[in-house]
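User: two proteins, same treatment. go.

Assistant:
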Amino acid sequence: MVWRKGVEGDHAAELAGARLARQATASLAGLLAERGMSRKDLADCMGVSPGRVSQILSGDENLTMRSLAAVAEALSAQVEITFFDPPIPSQPEPRESTAPETGPLTGSFVSSSQFTN
């Protein structure tokens, strides 16, 4: 299902989906590492082949809610999906000028070779 019409919307949705898949697989890989579990261990818990687990963890797989739920169920873990507004990029605060407000500064650059000891 495409939420936005047009090529740009399709591309944005594809990128967002890929990013979510990477986040989910990275989180799952982290949980497996914390528990000292291998992909084969997860496959045994899920009752699937190690190849299927590799597909899930590759990030190329189109992960569904059901596949995420199946992984969570097999690991007695929870999946949390949260929608939130992205943070607003911070804008650099304007610096207060210490230059007099009489106009632009003028002058010339002086080379260090012009100074004598």
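Protein 2:
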Amino acid sequence: MAEYFLGRRDIASFTIELDRGNAVLQCDVAEYWSPIIHDSSKCGAELTYELSKKTGVKESEKVAFEDSLEASIGLKSIAQIKAIAKQNLTTEVHWESVQEEKRKVVFPSPECGKYTALQYQKLRDYHFTFQEKKWFHKNSWQSYFTEHTKFYHDDSKTIDPDPNCNCKPKEPSDFDGLLHVDFGDTSMIAPFRKSSTGIEIELSGKKANIEATGDSSFIVNIPIEYVPDSLKFLGDMKEESYEATATPYSEPVITHELAHSYEVEAVEMTIQPLSSSEGKMEVES
């Protein structure tokens, strides 16, 4: 899951015996979200950004680790270590050399507001400590590398109105909470307001009604047009719709400006949440 969090999390620590038990390799793993874009546009202007998508490990870091193992115990492949890491992390690991893909993405801003593009990628740090089990001479060393995972998060926000645009004053529209919408490999933050029939959620500049309270998690099927173009590219999202888990989300600090920051034109669509693994989406005509 592409659960977004602040700071750094230690997620695993395991030991591998090598060279028929004559050496040991300790591995400590931590994850964090690293920004890949933090930029903004306002007052109707468009922000064009060349977004970069990377997956894997830097070749220099990988080679340094492999060379250390080969020099110490003659191990020429890290496939065994990768398999054990995957087992301990219970997720896919990408230790291939970094593959990079770029694409230009346009981020529009409201005519009288400001749009801040915030895109993050989850990085995974591996700290290896090697030691031989010998009485008189113990060869030991440390090595590190960072994996660029396939997990991405869109934390972008819109402020409308923005007083710097010098537009005719209008009443800002408040919202009642935030949802963390998790598609699996990608996720995004979406504001919502409570209504008489459930909640009104805003996704990629569009509004939709959902029969939910916003107070607990629910599963919903979301059409691809409600996913931002940047997230489609980063997550290689090409299907017509995606099932997502929506969970109430609370940021550490929500300022007064942010609390009045979401107002877009409504569209005539109702998304029906899935109360279990089964459900359907209805689009009003």
